[in-house]
């Protein structure tokens, strides 16, 4: 399996999975995509029904690592990665209402769906860096969950230095403390003056500075890294198989911010999973749902909301969908992305938008509607959802079709957002034992403005110290 950029052609020396894992973002600023979609036959899907989650994940991810990492090595990694999840099924599927399911993706160490991919990424980095006898520096941007999942997966790994940028004052206290109380030498947290988009722009600007990129061996844990998407595909396969695939269609509803989670579902559909609809949910930062409803992809200010992890305007992974909707025409994709960066508006051709509409639905919830959804699911089904997962459930319920199961991605544990959960339901969600003393732990982080030169110096100093 070889990879190409959304902004470039497939070259004779195209990188393999290990290469793009370390590269993170393509040199031309585009995102890596597999040269073609691996297909999973209905027969293979049926055979996979009885696999454990770790073994299923290894089979799915192996389709993208062909020529770089074999399935036996991957199976060792997946078995290890998911061994400590606090649910035997790893990704349990709970029926909340008739034919409306919650796919719980928050049973990992940091209580969010990011652990699903990040626990694999830490192991993949170790494997490839050891093979190549190299060190890498990860600079990541987070609106709250990616950061702690990356830190947990990479802490103490000798071949990795990790710097996580979070928007100062815009995460929940639990989210911030999950990052800033980790004391391992290879981890540095920086609170940046700005919003998530500022942090993500800074990461991309560091990648665009090729001298810096080479100097520190820069790599990525954000979902700009294809490995993140690959490791998020298996749970869609698992849920669909549990509900009758390949002999029955399934729809998914996904609370969406950087578009990485739902893109993994879309990839599963390209690979042969019988997915009918993909429904995306937004908070007031509704650029993606405005796009689905009106072909209006125009950037507004990032506004704080009850679901802070989705306080995002520029969704990196949308570029991957755009590339596909343009029939993989990388020249057009690059031109549209350039114009988007310059004007804040993306002119997606009408025929591409119409094709996207055949699969995607979209809906926005205000904070009041999010609270109301949390209250309703709790009162009527005794299901306690965090604000992000509640958006997924509400949107799934809105687009349910008779006879087709709707699976909503439950992306975070309610205890990550206690204030919102208490206000909506009166229930105080407790942190699990391994985090019960989180508020007694010492925090350690730097505060910086969004000047790239200062941040690059902080990264250099961190590598020297580590
Ligand atoms: C809890 C939670 N829900 C939903 C999302 C949105 O997911 P994505 O960015 O993959 O669209 C995020 C962050 O990305 C998140 O942390
Ligand atoms: N919600 C995310 C934002 C970053 O998304 P990613 O897909 O690049 O990891 C977060 O919690 O940080």
Describe this structure in words.
Keywords: Amino-acid biosynthesis, Lyase, Pyridoxal phosphate, Threonine biosynthesis. Its EC number is 4.2.3.1. Pathway: Amino-acid biosynthesis; L-threonine biosynthesis; L-threonine from L-aspartate: step 5/5. With 466 residues, the chain is α/β, with parallel strands linked by helices. It has a domain of 223 residues: 3-Layer(aba) Sandwich (Rossmann fold), CATH 3.40.50. 44% of the residues lie in helices and 15% in strands. It is built from 20 helices and 15 strands. The strands form 4 sheets. Strands 3-4-14-9-10-13 form a 6-stranded mixed beta sheet, sandwiched between helices. A 5-stranded parallel beta sheet has the order 8-5-6-7-15, with helices on both faces. Helix 3 crosses helix 4, helix 6 packs parallel to helix 7 and helix 17 packs across helix 19. The chain binds pyridoxal-5'-phosphate and the ligand N[C@@H](CCOP(=O)(O)O)C(=O)O. Ligand LJ64HWYM binds next to helix 6.
Helices, strands, pairings?
Elements: E1 3-5, H1 17-23, E2 32-34, H2 42-48, H3 53-65, H4 71-81, E3 93-97, E4 100-104, H5 114-132, E5 136-141, H6 145-154, E6 160-167, H7 173-180, E7 187-192, H8 196-208, H9 210-216, E8 218-219, H10 226-230, H11 234-242, E9 250-255, H12 260-270, E10 275-282, H13 287-294, E11 297-298, H14 318-325, H15 330-343, E12 345-346, H16 350-357, E13 360-364, H17 367-381, H18 387-398, E14 406-410, H19 418-425, E15 446-448, H20 452-465
Parallel strand pairs: 4-14, 5-6, 5-8, 6-7, 7-15, 9-10, 9-14, 10-13
Antiparallel strand pairs: 1-2, 3-4, 11-12
Helix pairs in contact: 3-4, 3-11, 5-6, 6-7, 17-18, 17-19
The chain binds pyridoxal-5'-phosphate (PLP) and the ligand N[C@@H](CCOP(=O)(O)O)C(=O)O.
């Amino acid at each position: 399996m070889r990879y190409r950029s959304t902004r470039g052609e497939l070259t004779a020396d195209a990188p393999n999975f290990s290469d793009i894992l370390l590269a993170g973002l393509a040199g031309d600023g585009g995102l890596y995509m597999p040269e073609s979609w691996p297909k999973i036959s209905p027969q293979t899907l049926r055979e996979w029904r009885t696999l454990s989650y770790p073994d299923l994940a290894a089979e799915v991810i192996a389709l993208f690592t062909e020529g770089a990492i074999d399935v036996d090595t991957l199976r060792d990694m997946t078995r290890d990665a998911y061994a400590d999840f606090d649910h035997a099924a790893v990704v349990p599927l709970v029926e909340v209402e008739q034919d409306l399911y919650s796919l719980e993706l928050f049973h990992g160490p940091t209580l969010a769906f990011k652990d699903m991919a990040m626990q694999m990424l830490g192991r993949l980095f170790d494997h490839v860096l050891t093979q190549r006898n190299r060190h890498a520096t990860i600079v990541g941007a987070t609106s709250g969950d990616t950061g702690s999942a990356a830190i947990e997966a990479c802490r103490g790994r000798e071949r990795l230095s990790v710097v996580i940028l979070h928007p100062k004052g815009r995460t929940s206290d639990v989210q911030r403390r999950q990052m800033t109380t980790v004391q391992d030498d290879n981890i540095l947290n920086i609170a940046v003056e700005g919003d998530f988009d500022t942090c993500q722009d800074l990461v991309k600007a560091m990648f665009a500075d090729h001298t810096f990129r080479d100097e520190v061996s820069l790599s990525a844990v954000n979902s700009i890294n294809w490995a993140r998407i690959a490791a998020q595909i298996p749970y869609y396969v698992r849920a669909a198989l549990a509900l009758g695939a390949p002999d029955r269609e399934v729809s998914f509803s996904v609370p969406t911010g950087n578009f990485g989670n739902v893109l993994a579902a879309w990839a599963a559909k390209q690979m042969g999973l019988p997915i009918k609809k993909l429904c995306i949910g937004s908070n007031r930062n509704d650029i993606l749902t405005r796009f689905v409803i009106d072909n209006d992809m125009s950037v507004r200010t990032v506004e704080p909301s009850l679901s802070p992890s989705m306080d995002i305007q520029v969704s990196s992974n949308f570029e991957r969908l755009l590339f596909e909707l343009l029939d993989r025409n990388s020249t057009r994709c690059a031109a549209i992305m350039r114009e988007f960066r310059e004007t804040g508006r993306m002119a997606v051709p009408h025929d591409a938008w119409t094709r996207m509409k055949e699969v995607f639905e979209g809906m926005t919830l205000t904070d009041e509607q999010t609270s109301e959804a949390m209250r309703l699911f709790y009162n009527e089904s005794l299901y306690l959802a965090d604000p992000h997962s509640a958006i997924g459930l509400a949107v799934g319920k809105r687009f349910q079709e008779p006879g087709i199961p709707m699976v909503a991605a439950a992306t975070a544990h309610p205890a990550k957002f206690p204030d919102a959960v208490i206000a909506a339901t009166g229930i105080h969600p407790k942190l699990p034992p391994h985090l019960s003393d989180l508020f007694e732990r010492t925090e350690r982080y730097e505060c910086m403005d969004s000047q790239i030169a200062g941040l690059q110096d902080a990264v250099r100093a961190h590598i020297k110290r580590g």
